[in-house]
Structure to design on (329 residues):
């Protein structure tokens, strides 16, 4: 698409101050010997029986930690301040570990090695690849992206990782593949939420092939210049910033190319509220709440939500021939 993009979210060089601030704060906290954990609010309420607190095991060294930080790609800067790391890593949606936001301790039970990723369906030759080998093959970069949850909270974070297109190229899909389905691990021993059998585990999300190969679609393997925290979807998760956050499926173990549009986790549970396309649009309310504004984590501020979450100039072209679809739900 050779058109000139005016990126109104481009950021002047001076905006690097936010980064400096969060790094300084991190150093101060580390110096005091208190990590992010102390900042976590206790759960305000409990639902179901899945929230037995799990003590965090001793900190393990991530075998990929030497790879980070990676160089930031300035093309994807965002004009608003970065969310404090302590917020982004303690306020999470990860239903495998509980249907509330305070899952960061429970998620520490997830073993990250060995971590095998299956690539199959309509590809020249299906294969399985270990996460560390995949990392070696992919060109890593950092991108600051907005993230907008369908529940109307939002954050701005530096993901590290690679373009999903690089993985699609490695997979060599057949020309007839139209969609890419992505699945989360399944392990009821470590993920208590997966014992709640009314959910259609494993968590699955899908993109049309042109979305999956769009330059903005990103596989994130790190956050704030470090390996991905477990609660944020280690070791690899999707980041599709123009769509509601539930599309950004975590802790991936499978990429399956298919001719048929996959039915995603939330679509299967509640298709009327959470559809396949799920592009952000402030003018189309969720059946139970407005999507006009969003709460920025860690600031107490509400700001207007933007069409395609501010990425319209990048992605609107994907949808010009799909006007009859439910693009914004
Ligand atoms: N496997 C899995 N992936 C998931 C979810 C989940 O519950 N399970 N929640 C989604 C939702 S609703 C959001 S908003 C984001 C939250 O990502 P974060 O915790 O890193 O902010 O993850 C998405 N990916
Ligand atoms: Mo979400």
């Amino acid at each position: 698409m050779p058109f000139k993009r005016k990126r109104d979210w481009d950021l002047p060089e001076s905006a690097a101050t936010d980064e400096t601030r969060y790094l300084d704060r991190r150093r101060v906290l580390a110096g005091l010997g208190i990590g992010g954990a102390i900042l976590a609010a206790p759960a305000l309420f409990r639902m179901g029986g899945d929230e037995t607190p799990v003590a965090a095991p001793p900190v393990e060294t991530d075998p990929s930690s030497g790879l980070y930080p990676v160089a930031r790609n300035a093309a994807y800067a965002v004009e608003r301040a970065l969310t404090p790391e302590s917020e982004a890593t303690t306020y999470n949606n990860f239903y495998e570990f509980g249907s509330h936001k305070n899952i960061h301790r429970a998620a520490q039970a997830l073993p990250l090695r060995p971590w095998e990723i299956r690539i199959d369906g309509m590809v020249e030759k299906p294969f399985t690849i270990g996460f560390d080998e995949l990392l070696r093959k992919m060109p890593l970069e950092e991108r600051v992206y907005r993230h907008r949850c369908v529940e109307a909270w939002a954050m701005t974070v530096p993901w590290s990782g690679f373009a999903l297109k690089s993985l699609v190229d490695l997979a060599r899909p057949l020309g007839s593949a139209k969609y890419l389905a992505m699945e989360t691990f399944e392990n009821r021993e470590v993920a208590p939420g997966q014992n709640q059998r009314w959910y259609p585990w494993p968590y699955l999300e899908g993109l049309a092939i042109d979305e999956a190969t769009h330059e903005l679609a990103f596989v994130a393997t790190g956050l704030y210049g470090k390996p991905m925290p477990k609660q944020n979807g280690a070791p690899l998760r999707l980041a599709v910033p123009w769509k509601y956050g539930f599309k950004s499926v975590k802790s991936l173990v499978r990429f399956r190319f298919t001719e048929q549009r996959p039915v995603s986790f939330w679509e299967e549970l509640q298709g009327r509220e959470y559809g396949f396309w799920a592009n952000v649009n402030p003018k189309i309310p969720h059946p139970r709440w407005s999507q006009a504004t969003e709460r920025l984590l860690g600031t107490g501020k509400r700001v207007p939500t933007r069409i395609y979450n501010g990425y319209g100039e990048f992605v609107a072209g994907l949808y010009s021939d799909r006007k009859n679809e439910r693009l914004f739900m």
